[in-house]
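Hi everyone,

Forwarding the result from last night's run.
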Amino acid sequence: MLVSVPLVLEYEAVLTRPDEMVLETAVNGNADDLATFNLRHLREAAAVFGIKAAVPGRSWQKIRSEYEKE
């Protein structure tokens, strides 16, 4: 196993992020979609709850296209 100080610090920073609060809010709010720049950490977790994670720009495009259909 190889480990460096910067790598350990990066893992620590990632593991202490409040990302679970974002996902918890989406789950508790029965969200269909989750807009986030952190797809790497949230996409798979959101999918477990049937929530589609996408970058905010993509989410905004989806909202606009649904609005324009009305």
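The beta strands are 33-35, 52-54.

Cheers,
N.
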